[in-house]
């Protein structure tokens, strides 16, 4: 096991909690942390406590008026009319006590990960409390208050002068991050997600390519509903390899939402753990090939918090730390016995999913063919640019 990776975690992050019935439940962090410690892959020497983001750091992306509204919302002094102007006190993003502090801690966790890697202290950093990619400059959206990934990218640009490649494999389009850097040639965003025809936020079409100097640096792969492992992995690998060769970043930031899994209740994709084993494997490989290992990974969506999220997020850490041999062993009995009484479903006893969990998809070949056409359209500009460079070179 190497010690070039760091895990950002504190149980204080569990305070980011809208209400008891809300699907976004950061107990996922505790479940994942506990699973990793139960297999002896994570100890205190690997953990850094997240710090609180400062207001100036939040202002790297967010309007001061929005930050003030969030603070007032957490104090119970925000009127309904003003709240709605900022996307607050909605069904998706309801108010809760001390929400400014809770959201600032998540941002600070991602910034802690950034500094750990960009200072050269570590090659890789994992902050599962982050990945809130729907937050906008002046508006909360889709369970996300402050957009930690956007803030982290701007922070890396200003403090470290870095070119950043942002890879988003959440089933929901990474809209907040894309729009924050839509005209910026120093940030490239690649999002593979379920098509917006069926799913929030409804954006992320192939035609969203960036604007001005940033044209060509926003790449979207909207896959069809019921997409399975083979198609998802093929698109992800092909696009990631071609985009990183085209962009040549200084650092990779991956958003690791795990809601493309078949069990997820909010999406319509059909991935299994095979996809979530491959996603960090490729990121790890390409980070060493192109970025001297600089790889920061954050969490994101994932709403089957019992059967899917702990295993899928653990796979990122096991890949980062070269502990893949653990996957040959069963899930520890002590973890199963601890959490099964609280779980809504039967907890799986293996790291991998049995193939039987994915039902037969009658349109599988049609879906795969459609996704390949989407890939061709998404990479058309990049492939032309690479051909032009090859002719000149």
Automatic annotation (TrEMBL):
One GO BP annotation of this record: acetoin catabolic process
UniProt KW Metal-binding keyword: no
Start and end residues of each Histone deacetylase domain: 22-317
Keywords: Acetoin catabolism
Pathway assigned in UniProt: Ketone degradation; acetoin degradation
Keyword Protein biosynthesis tagged: no
GO MF annotation, one: histone deacetylase activity
Homology family: Belongs to the histone deacetylase family.
The protein's name: Acetoin utilization protein AcuC
Source organism of the structure: Alkalihalophilus marmarensis DSM 21297
């Amino acid at each position: 096991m190497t010690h070039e990776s760091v895990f950002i975690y504190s149980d204080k992050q569990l305070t980011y909690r809208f209400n008891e019935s809300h699907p976004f439940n950061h107990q996922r962090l505790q479940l994942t942390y506990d699973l990793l410690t139960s297999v002896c892959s994570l100890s205190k020497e690997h953990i850094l406590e997240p710090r609180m983001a400062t207001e100036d750091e939040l202002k790297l992306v967010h309007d001061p008026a929005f930050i003030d509204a969030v603070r007032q919302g957490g104090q119970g002094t925000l009127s309904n009319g003003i709240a709605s102007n900022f996307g607050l006190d909605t069904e998706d993003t309801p108010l809760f006590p001390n929400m400014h502090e809770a959201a600032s801690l998540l941002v600070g966790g991602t910034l802690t990960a950034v500094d750990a890697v960009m200072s050269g202290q570590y090659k890789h950093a994992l902050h599962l409390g982050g990945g809130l990619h729907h937050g906008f400059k002046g508006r909360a959206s889709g369970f996300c208050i402050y957009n930690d990934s956007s803030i982290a990218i701007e922070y890396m640009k200003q403090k470290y002068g870095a070119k950043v490649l942002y890879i988003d494999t959440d089933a929901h389009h990474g809209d907040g991050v894309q729009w924050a850097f839509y005209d910026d040639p120093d940030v490239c965003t690649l999002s593979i997600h379920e098509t917006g025809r069926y799913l929030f936020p409804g954006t992320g079409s192939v035609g969203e390519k960036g604007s001005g100097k940033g044209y060509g640096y926003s790449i979207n792969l909207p896959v069809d509903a019921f997409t399975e492992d083979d198609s998802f992995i093929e698109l992800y690998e092909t696009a990631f390899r071609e985009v990183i060769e085209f962009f040549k970043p200084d650092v990779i930031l991956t958003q690791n939402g795990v809601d493309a899994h078949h069990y997820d209740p909010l999406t319509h994709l059909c991935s299994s753990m095979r996809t979530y084993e491959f996603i960090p494997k490729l990121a790890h490989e390409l980070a060493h090939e192109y970025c001297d290992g600089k790889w920061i990974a954050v969490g994101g969506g994932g709403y089957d918090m019992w059967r899917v999220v702990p295993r899928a997020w653990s796979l990122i850490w096991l890949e980062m730390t070269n502990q893949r041999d653990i996957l040959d062993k069963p899930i520890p009995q002590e973890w199963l016995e601890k959490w099964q009484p609280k779980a809504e479903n039967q907890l799986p006893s293996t790291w991998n999913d049995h193939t039987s969990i994915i039902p037969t998809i009658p349109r599988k070949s049609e879906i795969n063919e459609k996704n390949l056409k989407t890939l061709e359209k998404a990479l058309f500009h990049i492939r032309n640019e690479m051909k032009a460079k090859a002719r000149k070179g």
